[in-house]
Amino acid sequence: MAEELPAQDLDQARRTSMAAERTWLAWWRSALAASVGALGVGRLAPEVLDVAPWPYVLLGCAYAALSIGLLVIGAMRQKDLETALRTGKHTPLTFRTVAVFSGGGIVLAALTVVLVIAQI
């Protein structure tokens, strides 16, 4: 028979689990925003601006790749946090992950600015 946690420990475990779930949902929100960006840049912008679509389609695909990456890493992060909760270990987000997403975001933003300026 499994030993029950004291009320205070159970409450702490629940709060920690819910915080991990909120973090996972934040990854999802970010992925949805990137998906909207993909549609806006890749599909709508060329029609609205009446320009050659290929650079916008490529940039839209890059935003879609960001969305997929956010969903994958978010799911992996959720699994890691739940495992950490069960084992009592601390599992911080690696700097490599932060650097990859930050660098990718910078590149996407810069390319978007370049396309916007090119249309002036």
Automatic annotation (TrEMBL):
Pfam families, sorted: DUF202
GO (cellular component) term, any one: endomembrane system
Native source species: Solirubrobacter phytolaccae
Subcellular location: Endomembrane system
Membrane topology: Multi-pass membrane protein
Record protein name field: DUF202 domain-containing protein
InterPro entries linked to this entry: DUF202 (IPR003807)
Keyword annotations of the record: Membrane, Transmembrane, Transmembrane helix
Segments forming domain DUF202: 15-77
